[in-house]
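User: Hi! Is it possible to get a structure for several chains at once, not just one? Here's what I have:
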Amino acid sequence: EAGVAQSPRYKIIEKRQSVAFWCNPISGHATLYWYQQILGQGPKLLIQFQNNGVVDDSQLPKDRFSAERLKGVDSTLKIQPAKLEDSAVYLCASSLRGVGTEAFFGQGTRLTVV
Amino acid sequence: AQKVTQAQTEISVVEKEDVTLDCVYETRDTTYYLFWYKQPPSGELVFLIRRNSFDEQNEISGRYSWNFQKSTSSFNFTITASQVVDSAVYFCALSDPGGANNLFFGTGTRLTVIP
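Assistant: Yes, the chains can be modeled jointly so their relative placement is included. Here is the combined structure:
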């Protein structure tokens, strides 16, 4: 079974530029998550989708971050404009159902904003 | 509010030693789930175990074992006879089914196993 795919693996941009990350979850997984992991910290949820609807985006800085999951499969996360503090690893995860099920993570995209 | 505390930032052990990683959690929910994930240098978080709040039985899987104690709000993880391949960052996480089933992660414990 293929795992969660993310691209790109690495990205370096200048502050105020825009960037987009892509995620393809495990086939059949209805729930998709985007997490931000700052160096030395645990992952923090940015947004959660159930199929193509948003379940929780309370931690998403909506003035600069946006995410969509068209057709309930692939998802993109965008940052515009980027700030230095956005430097982090962006992890995508998916789970089969909602409550209590384990999430499977991709390898993440390491973003460096200079 | 949910909170997960992993007080040990870094641990180093010599190969074949046993090591216990501590996890203390806070939640007001009576139903919740606890998880452990391993993050090797490659960066991908690897699921290790899930435990629901009604099941306090300890679990053993090979060299790994988990001790869940509701009375102390702890969910500790022990690796027996550690190996170099166990070197990674380990995260404890709490899931809030009363909300949106988000995972709240601790800050992680970096384990280094010295050959």
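Chain A touches chain B through 28 residues (CB under 8 Å). Chain A has a mean pLDDT of 93.

User: Great, thank you!
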